[in-house]
Amino acid sequence: MAFRDLRSLTEMMRALGYPRLISLENFRQPNFQLVAEMLSWLVKRFEPTSDLPTEIDSEQLHAKKLYQADGHSVKEVIKVASVLYDAMKLNITDNLNDNEDSSHLPTFDIGSKVMELKQTRQLGTQITTKGATLYDLLGKEVELRERRSNVLARQLEITDVEQALKASLKSVGEDIKATNHNIENVASNEANLEAKIEKKKVELERNQKRLMTLKKVRPAFMDEYEKLEGDLKKLYEEYILRFRCMAFLEQQVDELDRVEQDRKEERELATRRILERMRQEESGMKPRGGTGMGERDALWGLCLAKTRTIRRAWIPIRTSF
Amino acid sequence: MRFKTSNLKEAKHSELVSCVSWMSPDDVISIADDHKILKWNLVSAETQPFAELPQDFHPTDVHWLPKGQASGAGSRAKGGPSGSDVFLVTSAEGKLQLINKNGRMEKSVEAHRGACLVGRWSHDGAGIVTGGEDGAVKVWSRSGMLRSTLASNTMPVYALAWSPDSSHVLYATDKLLTIKPLAPNSKPIQWKAHEGLILCLDWSPSNYRIISGGEDCRYKVWDQFGRQLFNSSQHDYPITSVSWSVDGQLFAVGSFNTLRLCDKIGWSHSLDKPATGSLYKIAWSADGTQVAAACGNGHVIFAHVIEKRIEWKEFEATVTGRKTISLRNVTNDAWEKLEFRDRIIQISMDFGFLIVVTTSQCYIYTTRNWNTPTIFDLKEGSVSLIIPAEKHFLLVESNAVHLYSYEARLICSPKWPGMRPETLNAHTVSLCNDTIAVRDQSDEKNVHLFDATNGKALNDGRPFTHRQEIAEIALDQVGLANQRKLAIVDKNRDLFVANVRKFGKVSSTQGNSAKIGAMVQSLKWNANSNMLAAIQDSRFCTYLYPAVIFVDRNLLHRTIIERDSGEFGKNPTIVLFSGNSISVRRADGSLVTTAVSPYPGMLFEYTQSNRWSEATKLCRFVKDETLWACLAGISTQARHLETAEVSYSAIQEADKVHYIQYIKELPTKEAQNAEMAVLTGNYQDAENILLQAGLTFRAILLNIYLHQWERALDLAIKHKTHVDTVLAYRVKHLNRCDKDETISRYIQYMKEVDIDWERIGAKIEEEYHKEREMGGRAGRRGSSVP
């Protein structure tokens, strides 16, 4: 039935990994393009090297149903696809079994394999290069063989040999002469160099003496400079002292101000207290003469506090000078 | 949450499996193109052949008659195939077959030209709908007789579903989704849903949402009106199956080598890649913990939902396996592992108790002691919902609803006509310490209210009736039973508050509920006080005292704290509102926690325990008008005049203050109560109070002030006093409005009675004097200190 076939086809193609999604509605209308695409894709699955022409206009297909490219063609395509699908399903189950069998095997040492691979590759290239050179050399052999045979066939003559020996003797003699000449020249070179060294040494001594004399001389402004330096030092000390004094005095002033402030507050407090007491006594139940006593006490206290604060304020100044 | 899938090494079917369905909580049947029906038992892990189909039969769909309907519907339809023993199978040859549980074919009909692609029982089990390659949608009786052809299209119908109330059918043709009512001559809703062919859809009977999936490799979530709520990202392959879980909290999506578990909003919990080919059908078990899926390469896979995680205060419980829960106390990182004999179906943790329901038993643990749970056996063993409250919890089973205390004592089992407990969800049932509220399943405008202590229906068994279909209900959690409020969100997403208990004579049911918000997407009552958090349109609102609508309508908008809900994205839902913290789940599944002011909570605590002076102090300290408005509402409700006066003056409601002062000077308690009722707008209450206390004159005067002339005259005649007073005021009123008398009874009495203002004045003065005397006596009686 059409629906079931379509459903199976879409499922199979999805499972096989067909790159395009096939809709259930794709074959409601004849869809030649898609059938052709699918067929060529499927053929490629079977035989990857085959090359079908892509232009479908000229394509001749034999199966009449396939040519309709509608629901009927789906059946035909399924015949092809199901072979692959069943194979894949079998494969998956086999794989599952295999995996379980091999899962307990130890893992391979891939490092050594990689090394081997590299070696093999190197050897392979070596073989080819060797082969190539061998081939080249063998190609040259034809030419070389002729020359070799020529050379081997030639006769040797006595006069030629004698001449060659004489020439070589002469050249060796010339070499010896040049070497002897060089040996003689060595002594004169030596004397020459020693004279040069002597000259340089004298020059060095002279220069050193000059340096010593220059060091001994004292510049004319030096005395004045030293004197001024001493003056400056004294002046700086004095400045420091004065600055310190000023800072101290400023601190004293601050302290005085504070003391003044404290005293003022104390006085205010005392006055308030007095006022309060007076008020109490005025409104008190027994207006007695004792009221004056309290007031006097408060005043006395105030005086005492005043003198104490003054004394306290002056002591540090005296001691510091 | 994720799926734990299990499948066999060897496929039991040799060809493509096209459909699966659950027979019972532990049995599944699967049908494949190899013409075999297999039965899988999950407990014993056995597979046995169930039946053999004829060679020229290639199945496309299978569906068991819905459980729970079996007994009732079976007895109704006489002569039809009996009960839940029947299932339907559709075939690629266009046949619709009914097969009984012994594998014998009961009925076989030629349903469609070409393939019959899909067949579904209605939720009540009364009918079947099929869709075919010829584009027809046909409705059949439960015995397989053709009732009608609902629709005919040019394109094949690949998928369809019944609406939750079985009155509409949703079907997919090409790229379109159509909701077609069964009633003839009614207009269908149709919309373009996908970019490619739609292959599958499902409509949840619990949350009314629709999911669809198609060849554009996306799945989408819609609401019942066809508004898109979620659009998934593109997958690699077409979506071949979608399925809602029974409780509507989750759904599963199947594609080629893909199984996805999603939340009802649409975001994905987990993704599995089983090597199974396309998943042609996914079916959830009735308890919502497992799915079975039919695979393209002959496998049937089963997946179990695990790693469900719930939290309460410092405890965190995770379902780690089919029978294990691990518990963690996050403050000291103590771990606890709980093992069960049977499969876990539902868990819930709240109010200090962990409730675990397995297939046969219910375990109640307290958070103080994990070693000795209270255990009791379940009556049926298929719990679909647990709703906890502070003193007890509700178990919703497939045929009944039971209320248990935490000592495992059965308190009651409320019943109502036409109950279908398996479709109840947390939005349609609500529980608090003294009340159970359940939305009716046949008429969605009704809410059944039960007393939690004895299971009896409240208000003489009459359900609360709303104007519109109700989408969501929620009861407030604290406070007195007689002030229990029910929050209702109806089909138009308007938010209403209703009084659960009615006292005295209420003129109409509508006077008992009041609208307080619109466009509400999600709402939640506070667990500790009666605050209500709601997401309205793009605003996040906290109703500090929703009951204020029954006290002083004008105060409502002053007791709402509003803020922008932009941080929560589109379509957020409030999952938790406890203390002053609120957890909101965004549409993408992330949880956002936010806070509201802690002061309203404190204020409620004070007012609950009648510490009015402390409540006033708190408001003075915070200096927030919203809080003052709350206090005004609460104190007026509680008829605490001093606090009401202070708080009304703080929010500058001079008229109210004035009136309260007037009330305070009234001599009798009854008159004060009546005037308070008038202040809150309950004129009916006020009149009742006055008449009961014998203050007839005041009752008459009240009606005169309200211009309820006929009622005033009725009272006067009935009690034979002040007829002339009523007439005098009427004349005065008519003169002022320059109108003629139209009420016949007044015309009649006008002739009989003379109007003498002086005498009337004297009479009124006398009444007031009498009242003062009464008040004086009452005062002397009431207070012993002079």
TrEMBL record, chain A:
InterPro entries: Clusterin-associated_protein-1. It is found in: Cell projection, Cilium. Its main location: other. One of its GO terms (cellular component) is intraciliary transport particle B. Keywords: Cell projection, Cilium, Cilium biogenesis/degradation, Coiled coil. It comes from the Eukaryota. Pfam families: Cluap1. The keyword Coiled coil applies. GO terms for biological process: cilium assembly. Residues 176-217 form a coiled coil. Belongs to the CLUAP1 family. This is Clusterin-associated protein 1.
UniProtKB/TrEMBL annotation, chain B:
Residues 627-773 form the IFT80/172/WDR35 TPR domain. WD repeats lie at residues 109-141, 191-223. GO terms for cellular component: cilium; intraciliary transport particle B. SUPFAM superfamilies: WD40 repeat-like. Signal peptide: none annotated. One of its GO terms (biological process) is cilium assembly. Keywords: Cell projection, Cilium, WD repeat. The keyword GTP-binding does not apply. This is Uncharacterized protein.
